[in-house]
Amino acid sequence: xxxxxxxxxxxxxxxxxxxxxxxxxxxxxxxxxxxxxxxxxxxxxxxxxxxxxxxxxxxxxxxxxxxxxxxxxxxxxxxxxxxxxxxxxx
Length: 90
Fold this sequence. Notes:
Layout lengths: L6 H24 L17 H15 L12 H14 L2
């Protein structure tokens, strides 16, 4: 995420996030974790509706990361943080 500064680096991040999810699904299938916690890859939100709900909740709670110290002028990085928040924000 730290390297996200423009459209191409955001797309590279999205591809990495997809690969992370695919890897987590394979590991989860091989060795299931508890249904009450994150899956094998640390994914709390594995359905699209809970993923988007978590990302939106993070954005609302942090002003898209500005309250966490993200630079307001780097919209690409803020969107990358929005996407990762969908993975693990509760």
